Amino acid sequence: QTVVTQEPSFSVSPGGTVTLTCGLSSGSVSTSYYPSWYLQTPGQAPRTLIYSTNTRSSGVPDRISGSILGKKAALTITGAQADDESDYYCVLYMGSGISVFGGGTKLTVL
Amino acid sequence: EVQLLESGGGLVQPGGSLRLSCAASGFTFSTYAMSWVRQAPGKGLEWVSGISGSGSGTYYADSVKGRFTISRDNSKNTLYLQMNSLRDEDTAVYYCAKDGAVVRGVIPFDHWGQGTLVTVSS
Question: Would the N or C end of chain B have less CB density within 10 A of its end CB?
Answer without folding.
Answer: N
